[in-house]
Every structure is written in C-alpha cells, then in structure tokens.
C-alpha cells in the first residue's frame, strides 16, 4: 500500500482560490503517474486532472483554464491549483497514483478510475458564499 495524504481543502467563496497538496510516501514519485479526482454528493467520482511521469497534463473540460496540476518529484508531492472556483466545484477531492507499467505512453490521459493503483482519503472543498 502506498500512502497518499491530501491537504489544502476548505471553505472558499465563489471566485476564490485554493491549492491542494498530495504527499506520497514512496521512494521516488517519478515512477508514478498521478491524478486528481473529485466526487460531489450523489455523483460519480470524476477525473479533474492528471499529470504523467513526463509531466504531460490532462484536464476535464469544466476546469480548463482555471485549474493547474503540477508535481514536485523532489518533494514527493503533487499539487492542484484551483482558481475562479464556483459552487459546482464543491466536492471531495482525491489524489491517485499509478505505478509505471511497460507500454505506458507519456501522453496518456489516464482518465479511468481503474487506471490508478492507490488513492488518498480525500479533502473537502466547499465553495459557498
């Protein structure tokens, strides 16, 4: 099991910003593709953003231009910078990790929940005035 710990969630007003962090307890984060998912009440968990080992990124259409995913392998950390937040962004946000596999393409989107091996416990983001 690979522990992933998210932090940075909270209550923010519409139009505000938050930065989520995910620290991964592994010897080398560079061996993992990473993703951020979210799940709102009554809805399925959906991919928000992914970042491959080679730093290729993929975003769900609803967050493009507002969210940015980044990684710092030296710190074993992945970040999700969220700007211009709306109430529709309210959800529990999860960090996910996929260990590299032979044949993985660096431009893969890794959008399926089944693509990932390990998950964090989630951090709540609430956007409300």
Written account of the structure:
This protein is mainly beta. It is built from no helices and eleven strands. Strands 2, 4, 5, 6, 9, 10 and 11 form a seven-stranded mixed sheet that branches. The radius of gyration is 14 Å and the shape is globular. It starts with a strand and ends with a strand. The model has no long low-confidence stretch (mean pLDDT 95).
Percent range of helical residues: under 10%
Number of helices: 0
First and last CA, distance: 39 Å
Which outline best applies?
Answer: globular
In round numbers, the mean pLDDT is 95
Main sheet: strands, sense, barrel: 7 strands, mixed
Determine the structural class based on helices, strands and strand pairing.
Answer: mainly beta
- Radius of gyration over C-alpha positions, nearest whole angstrom: 14 Å
Query: So what's the oligomer here?
Result: single chain
Write down how many β-strands occur, each being a DSSP E stretch of 2 or more residues.
11
Q: What share of residues are in beta strands?
A: over 45%
Low-confidence stretches: none
Topology order in helix (H) and strand (E) letters: EEEEEEEEEEE
């Amino acid at each position: 099991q690979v522990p992933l710990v998210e932090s940075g969630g909270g209550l923010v007003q519409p139009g505000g910003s938050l930065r989520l962090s995910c620290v991964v307890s592994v010897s080398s984060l560079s061996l993992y593709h990473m993703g951020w998912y979210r799940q709102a009440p009554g809805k399925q968990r959906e991919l928000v953003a992914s970042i491959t080992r080679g730093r290729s990124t993929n975003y769900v259409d609803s967050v493009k231009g507002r969210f940015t995913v980044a990684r710092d392998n030296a710190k074993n950390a992945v970040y999700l910078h969220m700007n211009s937040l709306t109430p529709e962004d309210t959800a529990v946000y999860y960090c996910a990790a996929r260990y590299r596999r032979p044949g993985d393409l660096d431009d893969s989107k890794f959008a399926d929940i089944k693509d990932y091996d390990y998950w964090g416990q989630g951090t709540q983001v609430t956007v409300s005035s």
